[in-house]
């Protein structure tokens, strides 16, 4: 993970996921998690980036 990916995962989780995986199921899941609460979206973004 680069510094840019970490910063994006904290402030714009869906953008970090779409840059890593493209427009996929992970991106839509991340949007859902981010809308349900900021912290779940951030956790999911870090999980996707670390895989």
UniProtKB/TrEMBL annotation:
The keyword Membrane applies. This is YqaE/Pmp3 family membrane protein. Pfam families: Pmp3 (PF01679). Keywords: Membrane, Transmembrane, Transmembrane helix. The chain crosses the membrane at residues 27-49. InterPro entries: PMP3. It comes from Marivirga atlantica. It is found in: Membrane. GO terms for cellular component: membrane. Belongs to the UPF0057 (PMP3) family. The keyword Transmembrane helix applies. Signal peptide: none annotated.
């Amino acid at each position: 993970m680069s510094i840019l990916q970490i910063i994006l995962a904290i402030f714009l989780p869906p953008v970090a996921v779409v840059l890593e995986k493209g427009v996929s199921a992970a991106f839509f899941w991340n949007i859902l998690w981010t809308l349900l609460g900021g912290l779940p979206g951030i956790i999911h973004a870090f999980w996707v980036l670390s895989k």
